[in-house]
Amino acid sequence: MTSRGRRDHRGGPGPLEGRVAVVTGAARGLGQGLAYALSRHGARVALVGLEGERLTRLAADLPGAAHWTVDVTDADELAVVAEAVRRTLGTPSVAVANAGVALGGPLVDCDSDAWRRVIEVNVVGSALTARCFLPDLLRTRGYYLQVASMAALAPAPLLTAYCASKAGAEAFAHALRAEVLHRGVGVGIAYLNWADTALIREADQTAVFRELRTHLPWPASVIHDPAPYVRAMVRGIERRSAHIYAPPWLRGVYAARTLLPPVVAHRSQRVLAARGDAPLPPTGLLGPGGTAAGPARTAGPHDPCLRPGE
Length: 310
Hints:
Elements: E1 20-24, H1 29-40, E2 44-49, H2 52-61, E3 66-69, H3 75-88, E4 94-97, H4 112-140, E5 143-147, H5 160-180, E6 186-192, H6 198-203, H7 207-214, H8 226-239, E7 243-246, H9 250-255, H10 260-275, H11 287-293
Parallel strand pairs: 1-2, 1-4, 2-3, 4-5, 5-6, 6-7
């Protein structure tokens, strides 16, 4: 291959050949990697996010791609984007709710607006993404992928907003699957551990995340190359998988999830008590994506994403 965006030639068209796939949070990290991978598998990718300059460069590198700068928590803006995707690329048959932000720190010290913003982007933004593109997925009998996290399976102190948001996004996806499966729409959830992205690299410079990861047991403490995560998500999209686990050992965490809260609480009690009064300053919204997300925006009083008769 001479271009990162060029499609793989694998002895015939694959299930993504010629499909339109929407990826939110596509400007960097896992979203960017997934956009490249979907394009290599023959999809026309709609790149959605807040970092317009990065999206412009990415779209120029991917055959048939187009990009839109939008806040996924704004129903009006996202509805306009959904219509523009239909006109520009065609009817989507894949939608990936990848956009997300995080912050760390003791709940009592976290800025309330930043804490709320994590919930809005990770839960409300995911739900609006699904709602705005669901008419398309119903027409194409398509597939919606919710990017979750190990944080949806195991509680983590100092990450109350992130854990709550990922657990909420997971529950939303489970409920949505039950609602639309009989209409031919597949819904999957990707459970991912730490990936080597700009967000995690910045987080690791903070006292909160150093404290958190230092006391996680192996292999949960390990930061992984995001490339295998992207490959796992592409396989899951092609197979319309209900669950995607990356790394694969997260399947065991899923099976043991009912046992984890008391174990985590007991371990955290010892670790945090040993710190005494040593401060753990809250981080604020992390990474370049968190900077782009900025303060919360006020959504409109109505949701235009479902048009009359759909």
